[in-house]
Amino acid sequence: MEGVTLTSRAIVFAICAGATAFILALFATSAGHFTADSAARAVIPAIVCGAMCWASAERSIASTAAALDSAIERIARAADGDLNSPIPREVEKCVPQLAGAMDSLFDQLHNNLENVQRLAMFDPVTGLANRVNFRRNCERALGEMGRERNGALFFIDLDRFKNVNDTLGHAMGDGLLGMVANRLRAVADRFASAEGLRPLLGRLAGDEFTMFYPDILDVTEADRIGRAILFALGEPFDLAGQQVKLGASVGVAMRPRHGLTLTDLMRAADAAMYHAKANGRGRVEHFSDTLADAIADRARLENDLRDAVDNDDFALVFQPQICARTGSVVGAEALLRWRHPDGLRMPGNFIGRAEETGLIVEIGQWVTGTVAQTIARWADAGIGQRLAVNISARQIDHVSFFRSLRQALRDADAPASLLELEITENLAMTCSDDVLAAIAALRDDGASVAIDDFGTGYSNLARLRRLPVDRIKLDHSMIRNVADTAEARTIAQAVIALIHGIGCTVVAEGIENEAEADVLRVIGCDILQGYAIGEPMAEAEFIDWMREGNRRLIA
């Protein structure tokens, strides 16, 4: 289309030039008298002028067309990613405006692509390599290292950073992360190898950073670097005129001892970092065989738990609760047991891992379903004692848990009045208003609610008074030594009086001997539970034990 336009312009130009030459020649040869002869004589220079103009224009058109072809080829190369080659000279010579526009366009595209690359590969807050970029560079460095060459991966997690975000805001938090990155750069520069191999730095996410040294002498040097990191991040940060102290927990994995691949090293350094946090924070921990065994044990435990969930390898046992005044059985607590191939396992051996992996939700669903069926059987058999069941934090976090519990009771045709939910003291103090409303609704259906492990947390008495609670269970630590020391008896008696004052029944659990039971009766405890009262037992055994006890009371 452009070629046709240029040709049209050349033809018009040649015709105009020829016409102008004709008019001028006509005036020059006619001497004021226009005749056929003078017109004929004027045509000849007009034709010559027009032809020459056309020839000149045609050459210009050919040059412009060739320049346009070069421009098209250059644009095609740019579409394939070549933004650095120069603009062809013929384009600059014949179509300078087009050359300038192409040059500006390619510069803009190049800058845009660099920005996209920067955003894709670098953390915008700290300027460090992001997770993808760090992994890519680290894997490349590991691939170039000899098999026996030493390296060290540091996994750095900031301590108390969440407090900064919560109190000063995320903008201040981002500024603080930038300062942390600068201090880590200074540590990296200080310990760069003599061969000029710089360590790799990255920000993985949130307040987690990584540093990889591809050339390190030994564990001693890794310890020095770790201490330097702790010192650098332990110094106060000046944040908008405020002195902010952070600190860090650092995990270290050594190559080749702890792995040859980045995946192995990251797993080891991450485990070591969490070990540092668990041991008080603000410290450097190396991955070790002990940690490796612990990781393997946790993985094996998780797999075994998944198999147990799939195969229903759990069971409930029942520990009786008796009235302190009459000795009659008023209820039981359902306790979970795992029928492991190596023997029966107590909850303390697996509940923690179940909560970490989320399997506690599935296990909890099995427990509530089984409890509902048990309550239904007891109601049909005329057993009116309530059955208590513990609820984990992971379960109670979801309001849907209460819907599923109600559904389980309806499906089993089990009366809610025989159900008691037990939640820990800390959980009761921190659960949301939605959860409290769901608990209150279940209580309105007839269920009762108990706070478990009372005395192990930090209760807000005003909140405790407002909670929808019927019973409060004293932790064993609250009743230990009540039979031996006056101080223990005084504390226990005061707590019992406080609980009675807010209208709740007191349950003492973990009673280990008859002397403790006698003292608790005297100082006003309402319900007793523990091995001194009765051990956890299977359902049939519990029912026989309960009926035998009732017969003794009647006799």
UniProtKB/TrEMBL annotation:
Residues annotated as transmembrane: 6-27
Coiled coil: 284-311
InterPro entries documented for this protein: Cyclic-di-GMP_PDE-like (IPR050706), EAL_dom (IPR001633), GGDEF_dom (IPR000160)
Annotated PROSITE patterns: EAL (PS50883), GGDEF (PS50887)
UniProt keyword annotations, A-Z: Coiled coil, Membrane, Transmembrane, Transmembrane helix
Domain (EAL): residue spans on this chain: 298-550
Domain of life per record: Bacteria
GGDEF domain boundaries: 149-289
Protein name as annotated: EAL domain-containing protein
